[in-house]
Every structure is written in structure tokens, then in C-alpha cells.
């Protein structure tokens, strides 16, 4: 079977830098959990007083991308956020 692109879904990669403080990872995951989304990949690394985090979702409903982005930008301690978008590929069984 060949993958089929679906405009209703996007592959999204959120890259951010935040203050390294207790509870920051829970706050970063909360916008996803509120929408019943689970990131496919989460990678973090601490660099002194900062945390670099990468959260990727392979198939996020397109209408939710800006909602999650805005929630992440509002988290106290988030210093920068970059959002990378790509078309999701879905397999048809």
C-alpha cells in the first residue's frame, strides 16, 4: 500500500527552549493531553539553567496546531518556540 496525504492532518515538530525548573515538562505536555494527543517523540536536554525540548506529532489534526502552539507560548518559562510543519502521510489498510 502507498501512503496517502490527508490535508486534515499535519506532521508537527515543536522545538523550544525553557527555564529548567521543576514541573516544566508536565506543563509542556499539558496542551497535548488536553486535546487527547500524545506526542510520537519527545526529546529533552538540560543545558545549565535551560532545557531544550523537541516534541513531535506525526498526525496532528490541522485545526489543533495553532491551539497547541499558542498554549506552549503562554507557558511561564518558555523562552522560544519554533514550529515546523509538514504534510502527514497516512497509511490506508
Summed up, what is this model?
This protein has 93 residues and is α+β, with helices and mostly antiparallel strands. Helices cover 24% and strands 52% of the residues. It has one domain: Alpha-Beta Plaits.
Query: Would you identify the CATH H-level superfamily?
Result: ACT domain
Strand content: over 45%
Name the shape in a single word: elongated
What count of structural domains? 1
Biggest beta-sheet profile:
4 strands, antiparallel
**Main sheet strand line-up:** 2-3-1-4
Please, how many helices?
Answer: 2
Give the key terms.
2 helices, 93 residues, alpha+beta, Alpha-Beta Plaits
Structure description:
The protein is α+β, with helices and mostly antiparallel strands. It has a single domain, classed as ACT domain (Alpha-Beta Plaits), CATH 3.30.70.260. 24% of the residues lie in helices and 52% in strands. The chain is built from two helices and four strands, in the order βαββαβ. It has a four-stranded antiparallel beta sheet, with helices on one face. Strand 2 and strand 3 form a beta hairpin. The radius of gyration is 14 Å and the shape is elongated.
Give a topology summary.
Elements: E1 4-19, H1 24-33, E2 41-47, E3 50-61, H2 62-73, E4 78-90
Helix pairs in contact: 1-2
Amino acid at each position: 500500500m502507498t501512503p496517502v496525504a490527508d490535508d486534515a492532518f499535519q506532521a508537527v515538530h515543536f522545538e523550544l527552549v525553557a527555564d529548567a525548573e521543576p514541573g516544566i515538562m508536565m506543563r509542556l505536555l499539558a496542551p497535548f493531553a488536553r486535546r487527547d494527543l500524545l506526542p510520537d517523540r519527545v526529546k529533552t536536554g538540560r543545558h545549565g539553567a535551560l532545557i531544550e525540548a523537541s516534541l513531535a506529532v506525526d498526525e496532528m489534526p490541522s485545526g489543533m496546531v495553532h491551539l497547541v502552539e499558542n498554549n506552549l507560548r503562554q507557558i511561564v518559562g518558555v523562552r522560544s518556540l519554533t514550529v515546523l510543519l509538514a504534510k502527514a502521510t497516512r497509511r490506508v489498510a
